[in-house]
Amino acid sequence: xxxxxxxxxxxxxxxxxxxxxxxxxxxxxxxxxxxxxxxxxxxxxxxxxxxxxxxxxxxxxxxxxxxxxxxxxxxxxxxxxxxxxxxxxxxxxxxxxxxxxxxxxxxxxxxxxxxxxxxxxxxxxxxxxxxxxxxxxxxxxxxxxxxxxxxxxxxxxxxxxxxxxxxxxxxxxxxxxxxxxxxxxxxxxxxxxxxxxxxxxx
Length: 202
What we know:
Blueprint (H helix, E strand, L loop, with lengths): L1 H9 L10 H14 L8 E3 L7 E2 L1 E3 L3 E5 L2 E5 L11 E8 L5 H19 L5 E10 L2 E12 L2 E12 L2 E10 H16 L2 E2 L11
Antiparallel strand pairs: 1-3, 2-11, 4-5, 5-6, 6-10, 7-8, 8-9, 9-10
């Protein structure tokens, strides 16, 4: 549990700061009113090519693996910021020692978030859940976009020996409809093997 508490403090330090109480209040009310209104899309297995985890994605979606990041997109995805997109980041810290794991995990988390979320996003709500039975921090994020909003969630799983982050974003209407499916995808994530602990030096 110490890992989870540390992540809750450190993972938000990515310039996703509130710029105004009115903006945050409006977004929180909007999410409360609209969350979980969509239907869960049919899911199909999307095995990791490296056999590190089991995962499911909506039927017809595409997957692409680049380094430690798996990207999942709908069939009509054209690279637009507004399009739905789910990223799954999995990087080993190669240690089961709690202190060493935290020290290794923090820069990995910061780098992933900095590279995949622009600074206009703000954290408007924070909650706790579990993914694959492990404590998890769930951050609702948002930013203004033209006459609407970009919405999403950052999910950071406190697993020993490995950093696991799931990031989903989309334009407001699409994200609200997709949110139940995103949560169903989280429930279908199961870690198989992702690290090889380094033996202690003699």
